[in-house]
User: What shape does this take?
Amino acid sequence: MKETIAYLKERFEQALIAAFGEDLAATDPMLVPASNPKFGDYQSNVAMALAKRLGKAPRAIAEEIVQKLDVADLCERPTIAGAGFINLALKTDYLKAQIKAIQSDARLGAALTSDPQRVIVDYPSPNIAKEMHVGHLRPSFIGDSISRVLEFLGHDVIRLNHVGDWGTPFGLLIAYVREAYPEALNSSQGLVLGDLATLYRAAKVRFDEDETFQEAARRSVVQLQAGDAETLRAWQLVCDLSNQTNRKFFEWMGLSASIQERGESFYNPLLADVIAELDRLGLLVEDDGAQCVFLEGFTNKEGNPLPLIVQKSGGGYNYASTDLAAIRYRVTVDRAQRVIYPVGMEQMNHFAQIFQVGKRAGWITDEVEFFYAPLGFILGEDGKKLKSRSGEAVRLVDLLEEAIARARIDLETRLVAEGREETEEFIANVAKIVGISAVKYADLSQNRTSNYVFSFDKMLALQGNTAPYMLYAYVRVQGISRKGEIDFEKLGADAPIVLQEETELALAKYILQLDEVLGSVEAELMPNRLCEYLFELSKKFNQFYDRCPILQAEEPSRTSRLILADLTARTIKLGLSLLGIPVLERM
Assistant: This one.
């Protein structure tokens, strides 16, 4: 329907010129979906916007526009409501033609972008030295969904996992590898451990109990930064173990397999050149021995300009150094045109600061967009950041395992109530998909800038804007297929579309809005727009299902309704796939 809106806007432009002259050629008709179905499908309040400029009453302006507005090939006669709203209702025959057009289209009418870009999405960015926790949930899910939508629309998407794999935390891990696994330093096999958590906990115990070990850990950091060969070997063993663990998490959470690891260590050889370039550009100021860039618009408590330290007084580097090197590399080598950072709200100032330096250095220009997509916090029932009973961040593995366990209990309870028997394989698979999808959808369905309260009960509910509700709507259509022995792929391409009932018409109109919604996600980077659409689509399908017999209907309504049901299921499946959620044929 994006093409329909573009066409209608063009007709509005022609009407405005015809009614009021060329001066209004670039006026936005402000065409939006009508809030009330009785007014039609789209509504324009351009008459109100022009009232002051033209010195006329909005309704009089609307009447003049309507007299010149030629949309008869798509719409019924335009109507005027209230103070001057112009309402348009699409013709039923036009909607039928649009439904037929997408019936055989795998993309369901969602066209590829006319302006493909190379886009980098930076997620989920865990630290090598620690386990992934609840704080990685939002960057993982939102970053993955943004990547999927942009890629589907035709952009060249590079998913980068900017892992924290360098610096002080590695000292205790390297020291522990040397102490506990000396044979691994001279073996091609690597560390034979269950996961990173085992290594980290053991190393932390040694660090807390033994001062000699503490000194060995500090010495290991110095040796790492100096490029000592044995230290680098121990560091690589730790990185390899962590990456193996994280990859298992990525797969478990349904994240794209095309995420590339590019850690802080990747940029380490480039840092000296970055600092030298900032110096050549006259941006560096020495302050207490450190190299700094003083920022515009940022002040300290005393009201003095705030410095961004890019090289410590001892010559070492920090997060800002690495992030600036990443900006420079992504522009000059990756040739990115858009770089997106879905990161927690608490990092807002950091990104504003490094983007400012990037612009002043000439790396960020009008030709490339660096966009910080802030993420709100996940809260517990107490309204505070979600934490474990011990006060630490909840481990991601614990959270997902509990979601799967709860989904399994819900499923087994339902099977008993329905008198159904299913195999262990079926139960385990459904529980895993529903559990993880519920957590993922609950996160994605929220405005990414907002905080939300984490609730297993709400996210696993079969009613409401939840993953189980979406999955069940899809399963319902598959049930129609099984019951009627219908092969949706063989539904007649020449079969007419019948839109006589109100719920048929409402469902058809909503199916056709997918491309508009994806365009909104592309522009605003808000996956919750897609969730809202899928939820409304599922509700409209359920209303249609309840009020319009499908298998029992007479032809041509029977085949037409089967086509609508199939298009609904395909839209849900495609939409959920862009959220990183698989569907189920049965639940």
